[in-house]
Amino acid sequence: PGKRVLIVYAHQEPKSFNGSLLKIAVEELTKQGCSVTVSDLYAMQFEPRATRNDIVGRLHNSEAFNYGVETWEAYKRGGLSKDLVEEQKKVQEADLLIFQFPLFWFNMPAILKGWMDRVLVQGFAYDLSKAYDGGLLQGKLSLFSFTTGGSKEMYSKGGIGGDIRYVLWPMQHGIMHFCGVKVLEPHICYAPENVSEEKRKEMLTAWTQRLKTLWKEEPIDCSPEWYFK
């Protein structure tokens, strides 16, 4: 109770299955007394491209543009664009970050990847000497909740897609763990488009049930062994 949750949502259609998962999370967590904020990236027309527009005012080096260096310098002097500052404030205040999206090409949609690229800048989310367990966003939890086009069998170790954990490695370990954020077991709804209405209802119920006891969960072991065993 009293926990703060940020849901970063990347789907174009509110009536989609992802939209239903979002709605359930907002309702269930609010019911628990959490304060829930949603960044609905498509509705916000969030800009996914990392460009010099992200820096307000002078550049650190106007001769050759280096996005990483420029955003780091801008962050230190309070010179990042307004949309980034707003998202960073939401991240800063959150105890839990939930990412809700459909899997595209073994990855998150471009608009969500762009959110990661632009919001989690050096100085805010990590520093060169402060990464992984020492990342700057320690004390927070994250959860990747997503839908797939392929079945669970396709994403098994022996399946055509390989173990789903391979897909999660760059997101959970390479981004969240790198920034010091602890990672909860992912929530995966396999191929909701290809199953019966009844099965879809079961998937939604399972998500509701999980959210009821979410705060009792222990984070996953974010070591390479978890992803590649």
From TrEMBL:
It catalyses: 1-(beta-D-ribofuranosyl)-1,4-dihydronicotinamide + a quinone + H(+) = beta-nicotinamide D-riboside + a quinol. GO terms for molecular function: dihydronicotinamide riboside quinone reductase activity; metal ion binding; NAD(P)H dehydrogenase (quinone) activity. InterPro entries: Flavodoxin_fold, Flavoprotein-like_sf, NAD(P)H_dehydrogenase_qn. Its cofactor is Zn(2+); FAD. Residues 3-211 form the Flavodoxin-like fold domain. Its EC number is 1.10.5.1. Homodimer. Belongs to the NAD(P)H dehydrogenase (quinone) family. This is Ribosyldihydronicotinamide dehydrogenase [quinone]. The gene is Nqo2.
